[in-house]
Design brief:
alpha/beta, Rossmann fold, eight-stranded mixed beta sheet, two-stranded antiparallel sheet, about 30% strand, globular
């Protein structure tokens, strides 16, 4: 049985959503590691792929504190061994920093169910709308294969077997609603994101599964 290592928080931005259903369908055993467990280490963890999920923490220039810097170092060690890696939102930002890219704080949080601008190397499954919620913007490392962008950031890139995915491919409408409650955000963009994900739930789930299949087959 394949083993997926998942690094997340214990009680926020930890829900696997559509990624969790993909794990189940593809027969993955999930090994959870939590940022609250100190010190976080991957040295003794056996896994075929590492997923790093979102976080209210930051690796942006001028905002990166010691725990986030430690996570950058952990991810650098993992990807240096050419083991498959998938970073979602914060996990993508960590990957960018680990490989020499940049992350900058934006003037305001960007939340939307939106299409991205795709490059010629992008897989067809990236076409269509994806859920985005972030306040830090990635500039991918030099030499990365950038497959998708928004006007303010690189949003989907690959370096070897490591993939940075700014969109929250794991999101469902219910997950976003719970996050909004946790962070006390009740704005029109959140409402639109929740409603859009609920209306496209089956399609979004299928596209997420296809995207992860593409990543695994590529790696």
């Amino acid at each position: 049985m394949n083993r997926a290592v998942v690094l997340s928080h214990r009680s926020v931005a930890h829900e696997l959503g559509t990624i969790g259903s993909w794990f189940e369908l593809r027969g993955y055993q999930v090994v959870n590691i939590y940022r609250e467990d100190s010190p976080v280490s991957l040295e003794d963890v056996e896994g075929d792929i590492l997923f790093v999920l979102g976080s209210p923490n930051s690796v942006a220039n001028g905002y990166c504190l010691a725990p986030a810097q430690h996570e950058i170092e952990l991810v650098h060690q993992w990807v240096s061994s050419n083991r498959p890696y998938v970073g979602i939102c914060f996990g993508a930002q960590v990957l960018a920093c680990a490989l020499g890219g940049r992350v900058q704080r934006m003037d305001q949080t960007f939340r939307a169910l939106t299409d991205m601008t795709l490059t010629p190397s992008a897989p067809k499954v990236l076409q269509g709308s994806w859920a985005v919620w972030h306040e830090d913007a990635i500039t991918a490392p030099v030499g990365a294969d950038v497959m998708a962008r928004l006007p303010h950031a690189d949003t989907f890139f690959r370096v070897g077997n490591a993939w940075g995915i700014q969109p929250h491919i794991e999101f469902t409408g219910d997950i976003v609603e719970r996050l909004a409650t946790t962070f006390k955000v009740d704005t029109p963009d959140v409402v639109a994101l929740v409603e859009g994900l609920r209306a496209s739930h089956e399609e979004h789930t299928q596209r997420t599964h296809q995207l992860l299949d593409f990543i695994i087959d590529y790696s």
